Amino acid sequence: MPAIAETYSLGLPVEIGRIDQELKKLWQESKGAATRASLINLAVYCEEAGSLNTNTQLMARIAENHACRAIVIEADCKAKENRVDSWISAHCHVSRAGSKQVCSEQISFLLKGTCTTLLPSIVFSHLDSDLPFYLWWQEEFREPMDPQLWAWVDRVIYDSWAWDDFRAQMHFVESAQQEAKQRIVLCDLNWTRLDAFRFALAQFFDHPASHHNFAKIRRVRIDFAPGFRSTALLFAGWLAAQLSWRCEKTDMEDKLRFVGPSNGKIDIQLRERPGEPVTEVALETPEVEFLVTHAQCGDLLEVSRGKPGEKRTPQLMPAGKNDPVSLMSAELMRGGPHDVYLHAVSCVRNLL
Amino acid sequence: MNRAAEQPEPNPLREGISARAVPQPCTIVIFGATGDLTHRKLVPALYNVAADGELPPAVAIVGFARREKSDDEFRRDLEDATRKFSRQAVRDEIWKTFAQSIFYHQSEFEDESGYKTLAKRLDEIDKDYGTRGNRLFYFAAAPDQFEPILKHLKAAGLNQTCKGSWARVILEKPFGTDLASARELNRLVRNSFAEEQTYRIDHFLGKETAQNILVLRFANAIFAPLWNTHYIDQVQITAAETLGVETRAGFYERAGALRDMVQNHLLQLLCLVAMEPPTDLGADSIRDEKVKVVRSLRRWSRKEIAANVVRGQYAKGAIHGDPVVGYRQEQNVKPDSQTETFVALKLFIDNWRWADVPIYLRVGKRLPKSATEISIHFKKAPAVLFNKDLRDLNVLVIRIQPDEGISLRIHAKVPGASFRIEPVKMDFHYGTSFGKASPEAYERLLLDAMSGDATLFARRDEVEHAWAFIDTIQDAWAAEKDAPELYFYPAGSWGPEAADDLLARDGRAWRRL
User: What is this structure's pTM?
Assistant: First the structure.
């Protein structure tokens, strides 16, 4: 590939009207040494100054596992001047077969002033046709939610961890979803953060003979890192939704009470501890404790079950990572609807 | 594929996490645990699924073999092998916990007492590791050992389990050497394990692309109306390898390419290409349709076999520029061996969909490149307008290995004032489109067996019907009088000329790989 294809750079500045021609030229210049690959349109929107560079680096790494047409947008809504700058580049890596370069295209935009209202038109005119459109929204949602834009989105990706007002934000995305006639799948990276823990805890109950324990759960403890209370609450919401627990009112910040299907009380304790977003989850019945905890080495979980205080032999499972690239890769890999997430949210919406 | 396989009570915490049937806690007992398959494939596959978090924590592995060995020695051997053969680097901390559940059980296969002590040991493992009385017996031993193993498993009561638990057996090919021996093997297995407990493994079916054949056919409406005799001119399936007989001469001398590859791998691929849509994705629904294909294969008379089946054996030649010896010069091969290392055959599926569509299969050792692929050659468009002089057909190629993917050859106008038309290729590569590496076939198949999903395993009747078809060819070759000729081809060529003639007679040619 020519020098403009250098990974991690914004690439070649181009006039917005010449993007398609310049992209075409980019591939012609590669003389067949590289293969363009694209399975999705992945647009990322951010209003933070300098985010074009940061997101370009993220896209380069995401594209290694998820070939896409990347559209990276930085918007400066408060700028006095009105202008749009654009660049094209390609993120290339050697394919698994090892014989050729596989490249994802990136188109980058810097929108200033009133030009930020051009977002839908800019996005629409640069989508790779017939491919699904994923929008990674790194800002808080706010009025007006442009129905023109949202009607085109297949999946909207956000991180509720960063939200100040969960209920208000969910209202925005759910409204957009309704306007789009439920076509949009809501993908919360804060939920993705829980994948490994949910997986590790679920496997304890794969055998039908272990299902009787669901009704016996009396206490749940979720340890979370400072700033990740919403992550812990989503976890509690997941348990409640899947096990049909109803939330009882609680005035305490760190203790929740739920009622099970047979009216048994379940106390959930949320404990703030330094470490990973969720560091440990314990489910207790009178006879047995199911424990998932982060191993010392960081990217593994130790899972064990046994009587409290009894010596156990933990097994190790992957823990996943809490960086944007890993979270996005996990999210993009998963696909499908996220009904379980919505159920979890509805169980703890008022607590978030 | 069989989402609901033996999952009577779904785990509510699994919802939305995994689309596949969930592997159950169990103890995997490997017979022939000191052999190549265990070291190269089985344990690395189990390690990989453990490292990916797919293996339930309550899984134990018991190696059963003759050699004296302690648990620790066995673990060390397996660790060395896994470090060498695993698709991902071995992490010490994961291996350490994985290895805690590996044990070695020394016994002769014929020694009844060895199975009684095995039963005791499995009970202890159930208590200590929560494997819940579920047992998966993997027969990685030589086929002649299957009988004593099955007999003693039954005598020790290991073929049965208490309510809520299961016992399953995985058999490695070859499933017999002909119809009679396959029936006998099936009878032996059935004496100890019911058909639904029996998993006959064909690792080709665990490959991502093989599974994708069903998706390609039944999730894409564009192919359905074209997938029949009205639009398809011919189908070719090729399994080529550059390797010679290597260290398998003892086995290969008795088997040959027809039994080693065609009876199982190639016919399985053919079934996936030719089967009718199943009513659902249940194991038996899919296997019912596959069996119908094998049953519909036209049986040739001896005379027809001579005309439609070509057998060959590699002579000395060169692979990638390096000289190699002929098959008869290989170690442990008889100097006058009649074993075929190459087979090309033309067959027909006598049913409504495939009437008169020739299917050409080709398999061989010491061919110029290693590749397995299926090509569907569509009929020519009417010979008017642009098509009067076109020689190439539209071809849909499904590449099974290497470089898994799908390509479609179409015709396009060459830019310019004249109406010159050339074939162009639309190409989909798994490796390019999906960054994530596909799991090894054994990983998928082991998890399926632990989940009770038999979709990708061969059923008894599939195996027997396949042998019935193969036996007619094998019998013709073994005939004392007028047996078809064994052709020789130089290593590094695409087989004997007779294989090319087989298609040339029909005005066709093998696809260039």
Answer: 0.84
